[in-house]
User: Fold PF11175 family protein from Leptospira wolbachii serovar Codice str. CDC.
Amino acid sequence: MYFKYSKLFTKSSRKKKISFLVSSFFFSFLGFIIFISTNVLFADGWESSIWKDKTYRNQRISSADPTNGNDDFIKIPKKKTVTIAEIKTRGVIKHIWMTLASKDLMARKNAVIRIYWDNHKHPSVEVPLGEFFGQGWGEEYILNSAPLVAAPKKGKSMNSYFPMPFETGAKIEIENESDEDISNFYFYIDYEEWKEPLDSSLRFHAQWNRSITQPNTSNGKENEWALLGETEKTVFKKENYFSVLETEGKGQFVGLNLYVDSPTPLWYGEGDDLIFIDGNQTEANLKGTGTEDVFNTAWSPKEVFMHPYFGYPRVSDSVGWLGRTHLYRFWVESPIRFEKNFLFLLEHGHANSLTLDLTSVAYWYQSLIPKPMKVLPKKEFRVNKPEINFRHIHKWRDSFRSEKGYGEIWGNE
Assistant:
């Protein structure tokens, strides 16, 4: 092919032919990437089985108006919990879609989704609604990943494509912790009803965690990039790290949403990821090189970018990295397996040197846990930290000038 095209390169047409080849290669490569991204999401890819005869029945539970009118929603009163789906059979939830309207601007943060499998008394999913679907801080913005999608209008449409198997039943609850009603709550729960037993005891889990970290350096300084002195070596102490997930049993870890609110303009992401598998909590089985690296990016990014498996759907709009950034990573191409236990820790700055407001939602599959998961704090303990803006930066400058005696100060001294 290249020999054939080379004969076309005359002096008068060389530039045009090169442009044609580059364009052809680019669009062919783009098509290949799209094909790969959409066909290798969770397992063997749909193209290998979509044409085969199926034995399940497609079922749906939704908020459709039972009178056949157009009021296709339910109301979830303030301070109330509503069971939106209760399935008493065997199957797999394949898709969840939800959207809502409320006078409460923090409704997505103040509502909680809980999911129970196989008549288990403890929920396997207990997460604020927005943060479960990849919407941090009660905000609304676009997220475009393989398992979770926040779609137009402006991210108001919340979707999950995580397959969620159950053997004897499933129950989904929405709790409205707000002081306002959710006046309009719309939903689809699409599932397959199976006759054959499941070939796995693993069930879908999701857990929320939050910590406002403090510097654990020897002098208490938020030293990063050696701006405040020599960089310290990291000394491992489990309690100094942000805990993404700690669980016991057999399973496989598949995903993480991380919501970072940084009170400093300095880069928040020098912290490494440490993953301990099956009893080893002295030396990480999987050790990373920086927060941006575990999320498959590089060089302190501050750009909106979304891939089926990883991305930054929301980045700071302030100076440096001050403010809110949302990162996600899904290990659907190769889940991280564990047989006995699992621990995922994340440094907050190199040597755990930074104050950060970190919120995570971990997604994994494992056998049902006999004891309850970590208790989700009430909404009063989940509120956002106040915004730090240009006014506060000017006050920082005044403190610096005061320290220097209010002389002729530029600010970079």
The CA atoms of residues 316 and 324 lie 5 Å apart.
